[in-house]
Amino acid sequence: MSEEILYAFTEPFDSGKLKVSEIHELYYEVSGNKDGAPVVFLHGGPGGGTSPKDRGFFDPKKYKIILLDQRGSGKSTPNACLEDNTTWDLVKDVERLREHLKIEKWHVFGGSWGSTLSLAYAQSHPDRVKSLVLRGIFTLRKSELKFFYQDGAGHLFPEAWDDFIAPIPETERKDIILAYHAQLNSVDDETRITAAKAWSKWEMATSRLYQDPVQIASADEDQFANAFARIENHYFVNAGFMREGQLLEVQEIDKIRHIPTVIIQGRYDVVCPATTAWALKKAFPEATLHIVADAGHSSREPGISKLLVQTTDKFADL
How many helices (H) and strands (E) does the chain have? Predict the structure, then answer.
């Protein structure tokens, strides 16, 4: 990608661990302007964790930039832990962090699973959200999971699909997510890590319009793959701990219609296809939808990065 699209990020002036349960401690960091507009960045996955580059979507002169590693992810501990790890635990965690940092209202920015969590958080705490910037919309409906993990995206990436299903015996391929669940929770380390790397590589291989070997190679890192794959699979087996289509229900959207919202979606996103962004736009016509014609899923696609930065620039003075 063209790195110059993003702001040069500054180092955090505050960071720490927030204890949110008997089990979980969450890493957070704050950078940019101490007196700037507060924005919380909600990462994807679930299980993906944050990167210093994520600070680059925000003007550090205008924003107080808050990054949070969700339960089991990134620098949060214990790594890859599935216990007490649900959508609604994470919603409570985001609110705990807001209270901990003594912020009254903040902007909320999330892509992929981060868009899911952003919607769930905003619908739970609409009075605490100044704006929503959502990218690569994912609402965890059965049809979305089926497309990417069962019968859909593999038609476009057949060679990567063969690698993805290779750990799963042919007799178990009628439900790939469930079959992976058994291997990702195996007591055998080799079985678990092999499955985790294959699961993670599938998403890394399909996330961009043009495949990025560096991104694909990240799936070979044991700790990242273990957390990313196990936590994602845990959420998907459990349907996101939500009603089918809950985030798109009229009574849920009604709670957030007053929040300025921009949706940015790659036309050729196969991880979170544009049909979900379109469904959100139809349910939430007050939101602005941009479909980027030459982009896949990743926030690092140049056209997507450019629109994300333009949008955060616009919202900085709200």
Answer: 11, 8
On whether the pTM is more than 0.90, the answer is yes
DSSP assignment of 157-186, as one string?
A: -HHHHHHHHTTS-GGGTTSHHHHHHHHHT-
Clarify whether 127 is annotated catalytic.
no
CB 294 within 8 A of CB 277: no
Q: Which residues pair with 264 in a beta bridge?
A: 135, 290
Catalytic residue among 112, 131, 207, 299: 112
For residues 317 and 169, what is the distance between their CA atoms, to the nearest angstrom?
54
> Which of 43, 181, 234, 297 is the catalytic position?
297
Q: Which two tokens stand for residue 290?
A: 């941009």
Is 234 in the active site?
Answer: no
Please indicate whether residue 112 is annotated as part of the active site.
Answer: yes
pLDDT tens by residue, 267-297: 999 999 999 999 999 999 999 999 999 999 9
For residue 78, say if its preceding peptide bond is cis, omega within 30 degrees of 0. yes
Residue reference for tokens 């990054």: 67
Catalytic residue, from 31, 269, 298, 305: name it: 269
Q: Tell me the HSE value of 291 on the side-chain side, using a 13 A CA sphere.
A: 13
